[in-house]
Amino acid sequence: MKLRSSFASAVAGLLVAGATTAAAVEYPRVSPKATVTQVVGVTDVTINYCRPSVRGRAVWGGVVPFDKVWRTGANEATTITFGDEVTVGDTKLPAGTYGLFTVPGREEWTVVFNKGAKQWGAFNYNAADDVLRVKVKPQTASFTELMTFTFTGVGATSAEVALTWEKLRIAFTLKVDTVGKLLPQARAAVAEAKPDDLRTPLSAAIFCLDNNVNLDEAGTWIEKSLAIKETPVGIVAKARLLAAKGQKVEAIATAKRGIASARAADPNADTAWIETLIAEWAK
């Protein structure tokens, strides 16, 4: 025991001495760093974490105890950064970086967004700094050796953030106000557009059609674009507006005019997407 103790002390002394005389070398971590970023609508969401491996160990209730705050990874605490305000559950979270902690349970997990983003593990975790706690149900999943964060169901206004490790998956949904952010910008862009700019008002109108918002103003923008030049895309945008307002007979007739316009410009034009719209409106 004395020999082992002396050897350990000698090694520790050498390490300390080396640290003062040599440049630090960053060796590979057992749990490597990872970053995953997803744009949801126009909002960047980034997760920084370290990825522990199963390595044949009992993970849940073993490596990761139940009912205790977990760093949701290894090494430094996992963080999540929102480029804009997001909504999780019924709570709005301002743009910024949060510590993404969890409390694993056998039947239910708690996902915790905490102001303490910069810390090692969860040793300095302070519940008083919690911004939001969300309950989620764990799900059975295919085996995953390295803990992994992914974004699924990504759309213009929402996405699901999922964690998978070993044979378990947990997830929560976040929402972003893409329309609220972009609509004022679209209005400003249309107002500032040059007189011969048909693209800007048409793009703004198509955004509104895609999200089924602001249809009356979208109609004004479509007409502004068509007044500059009638294009197949502009004509079909008008057809979509008519359909959105329940005028499907007029929408079909207008869409057919869009097909004719496209083929007049290019006999080989792909109009299948317009024909798909017509078939949907004809039901």
Identify low-pLDDT runs.
Answer: 1-18
Major sheet description: 6 strands, antiparallel
Looking across the biggest beta sheet, what order are the strands in?
1-2-3-6-7-8
* Amount of helix: 25-40%
How far the N terminus sits from the C terminus, by CA atoms, comes to 85 Å
Q: Taking Cα atoms only, what radius of gyration do you get, to the nearest Å?
A: 27 Å
Secondary structure tally: strands: 10
Number of helices: 7
- Overall, the morphology is elongated
> Please, what is the average pLDDT?
93
Residue share in β-strands: 25-35%
Please, how many domains? 2
Spell the H/E element sequence: HEEEEEEEEEEHHHHHH
Structural class, from helix and strand content? alpha+beta
SSE arrangement:
Blueprint: H1 2-21, E1 33-40, E2 43-50, E3 79-82, E4 86-88, E5 91-93, E6 96-103, E7 109-114, E8 130-136, E9 139-152, E10 158-176, H2 178-192, H3 199-211, H4 215-228, H5 232-244, H6 248-265, H7 272-281
Antiparallel strand pairs: 1-2, 2-3, 3-6, 4-5, 4-10, 6-7, 7-8, 9-10
Helix pairs in contact: 2-3, 3-4, 3-5, 4-5, 5-6, 6-7
Describe the structure.
- This protein is of the alpha+beta class.
- It has two domains: 149 residues, no CATH class; 104 residues, Serine Threonine Protein Phosphatase 5, Tetratricopeptide repeat, CATH 1.25.40.
- It has a six-stranded antiparallel sheet, with no helix packed on it. It has a four-stranded antiparallel sheet with strand order 5-4-10-9, with no helix packed on it.
- Helix 3 packs parallel to helix 5 and helix 4 packs antiparallel against helix 5.
- The longest helix has 20 residues.
- It is elongated, with a radius of gyration of 27 Å.
- The N terminus is likely disordered.
